[in-house]
Input
Amino acid sequence: MLSRLSRLSRPKAIALCALPVVALLATAAFAPLPFSVAQPGMTANVLGSNKGAPVITITGATARETRGQLRMTTIEATGPDAHVGLADVVDGWFRTDQAVMPRDAVYPSGGNVKEIERHNEAEMKRSQDAATQAALGYLGKAGDDIKVTLKLSDVGGPSAGLLFSLGVIDKLNGDGSGGDLTGGRVIAGTGTIDAAGEVGPVGGVALKTQAAHRDGATVFLVPKAECTDAKSELPKGLRLIPVTTLKGAVNSLVALEKGRGSVPSC
Output
C-alpha cells in the first residue's frame, strides 16, 4: 500500500487517505454513544403535596403548620435505551441548559429499563428510611413512637434525602424556637443522606440550580464537594449554602432565618 501511495499525485493521495476518516466520522455521527443528555427537571415542595397527597405524613406527634417551601430538585435525562448520537452530544455540550453525562453515571449499568426503574425505586426507599432516621436522631425522638411516611411519585434515586430530613425537622420542630426552618423562603437543594446525618454528593447540580431558580427558590443547599459544579452555571439571585451534615444544614438555615451567626457560602 505504501508503494502504491508513493506513486499517486499528492491531491489523490490525500483524498485516498481521507476516505477512512470520513467513513469513521460518518459512522460516529449516526452510531449510538454511551451518553445521556440531561436537563433541569421537576422540583417538589416536601412540605406540601405531590399529585394530591402530602409528601410527609407524621403520626404519633403533632405536625406543625409550616410557611415557606423546601423544594427537592431533579434532572431529566434521556432514557437508558435512548439513541444518543454525536449531534446530540455536540449540541448538549455547548448548551448551558443541558449536560452530557456518561450513561453509567445516570443509570446503573447492565440493566434493562424495568430493572433500572426497580433499582431507582429501591434507592429512593433506602433514602427515605435514612432521611427519617437522621431527622428523628437529630431531634432526639424515638422512631418507635413517631411514624413518618414519605411519598413522592415518579421520582427515584437517593438525591432527595437531605430535603426529606429537613422537611421532617421543620414539620416537627421548625427552627427550635417557634419559627419556621425556612424563614418563609423558598429553599431548594439536593444531597444524599445517611442515618447518621452525613450529606453526600449527587451529580447534576448545575442543572438542579436552574430548576430551583425556575421554581422560585432564592437559596440552594448543595453538598460541599459539589460547590464548584454548582457555581459553574449559577442563576443570578440564587444563593448557595454548602452542607456536609444535617446538623450543619439546620444551623445554616436557622442563622439565615434569624439574621444571626455565620452562614457558609461556596
Remarks:
- The chain has nine helices and twelve strands.
- Residues 94 and 100 are 9 Å apart (CA to CA).
- The radius of gyration is 24 Å.
- The longest strand covers residues 35-45.
